[in-house]
Specification:
By secondary structure, the protein is mostly beta strands. It has 3 domains: about 1-5 and about 60-270, no CATH class; about 15-55, no CATH class; about 280-370, no CATH class. It contains 6 helices and 14 strands. Strands 1, 2, 3, 4, 5, 6, 7, 8, 9 and 10 form a 10-stranded antiparallel beta sheet that branches. A 4-stranded antiparallel beta sheet has the order 11-12-14-13. Strand 13 and strand 14 (about 365-370) form a beta hairpin. Helix 3 (about 170-175) crosses helix 4 (about 240-250). The protein is elongated, with a radius of gyration of 33 Å.
């Protein structure tokens, strides 16, 4: 069983201004750019810098994050098979608050989206064990997930001057955006069910045929609801009201909807000419350690010697040594004679084999295998 918990709080979270894009590639001025707006508002921003990290904000930028989870894996050995159960639960809570305009102007008071995410999953599978012509795995899987989100955009008394173009009617713009805010709440819930199976037919030592099938039924339900508040537009003319509503639309207006679920399924058949062999996972291997020496440099041989050549052929410039330990010499001999090991050598064209003794512990036999760059490894027999 594995569990974890994390907590992170910060009392500062602001955007550092490193530069401003004022024009297009052809030199044409980028209308209403950052400099244009700050100049129009009489605001002097902090100096642009990539190192000083100085900010000037009037909001209370901060964030808080909590997360944790627990998982449990249980294995049961059966004759020729293994039964595995994987159970997991996890949550992630995120509560940020940001200055929406990254200045000390009262324009974007608080822009943020909080999330509370929880999920539970359960997998149960059975898999074949040992040497056999056909390997297989089959199982079922379930996932439940809920995400509660809360988004807030709160604009200040100078929002219209900061976010709207100077061509917008000032009366309409102020009524539409100044002190305007909206709050969105959503909560999608997912229930996902799946059944899967996969088989591998070892046709020859270097040729496998893999077939698999997975069926998934997924149900998604949830809601989205947004409320908005701001200045009363009834004092405006009909035309001004329409213009103000048009301004508010891109910034968020009240709306809602409810989502339902759907069913999905998939099937997959794969054919692999080159199998993936992993001798390190063999039960006979008690230790598998890969040593990666620094690549030899012919331009700067070491040790340097004026009278002795140290030139190394290209195929030996990069070598890796795999240290392998077995319980005894018999286990090592049986391992190197198995079809999985031979299949790996053949599929990687590892035709060069040599033994390099590394160490001998109390009840282990250890061998080393030299690896060339383009080979999985070139193996060795027991020491």
């Amino acid at each position: 069983m594995i569990g974890d918990y994390g907590r992170q709080h910060a009392t500062t979270a602001a955007t550092v201004l490193e530069g401003v894009v004022r024009s297009y590639d052809n030199g044409t001025n980028f209308a209403n750019n950052y400099t244009d707006r700050t100049t129009r508002l009489g605001y002097v921003p902090v100096p642009f810098s990539t190192t000083e990290r100085t900010v000037d904000v009037d909001a209370d930028p901060r964030y808080r994050m909590n997360q944790g989870g627990v998982s449990a894996i249980a294995d049961l050995s059966l004759p020729g098979n293994s039964l595995t159960s994987v159970t997991a639960w996890r949550y992630w809570h995120w509560y940020p608050h940001n200055d929406g305009d990254s200045t000390s102007l009262d324009a974007g008071r608080d822009f943020h989206q909080s999330n509370e995410q929880r999920q539970f999953s359960q997998e149960l599978r059975i898999a074949s064990e040992g040497e056999r012509r056909i390997d297989y795995v089959a199982g079922v899987y379930y996932l439940w997930q809920e995400i509660k989100a809360n988004a807030v955009n709160a604009y200040g008394t100078r929002a219209a001057d900061r976010f709207l173009a100077p061509t917008v009617d000032r009366v309409v713009g102020a009524a539409a955006l100044n002190n305007y805010s909206y709050v969105s709440d959503s909560s999608p819930i997912t229930n996902s069910y799946a059944a899967f199976t996969q088989g591998i037919w070892h046709i020859t030592p270097m040729l496998d045929l893999t077939g698999g099938l997975r069926y998934t039924y997924e149900d998604k339900r949830g809601y989205f609801n947004r409320t908005a508040s701001g200045a009363d537009l009834s004092t405006l003319t009909t035309a001004q009201q329409a213009a103000a509503q048009a301004i508010r639309a891109p910034y968020g207006i009240a709306n809602s909807y409810t989502a339902r679920g759907r069913v999905s399924g998939q099937a997959m058949l794969t054919y692999k000419v080159t199998p993936d062999a992993s001798p390190a996972q063999d039960t006979a291997v008690q230790k598998w350690k890969l040593h990666l020496p620094i690549a030899y440099d012919n331009a700067s041989p070491a040790p340097p010697s004026p009278d002795v050549g140290h030139h190394i052929e290209n195929d030996r410039l990069n070598l890796a040594v795999a240290e392998v330990a077995f319980e005894n010499a018999r286990s090592a001999a049986e391992f190197f004679a198995r079809s999985a090991f031979i299949r790996c050598l053949v599929s990687r064209a590892a035709i060069s084999m040599r033994s390099v003794p590394i160490l001998s512990l109390a009840s282990t036999r250890s061998s080393a295998m030299v690896c060339r760059p383009r080979l999985a490894f070139a193996g060795a027999g027991p020491s």
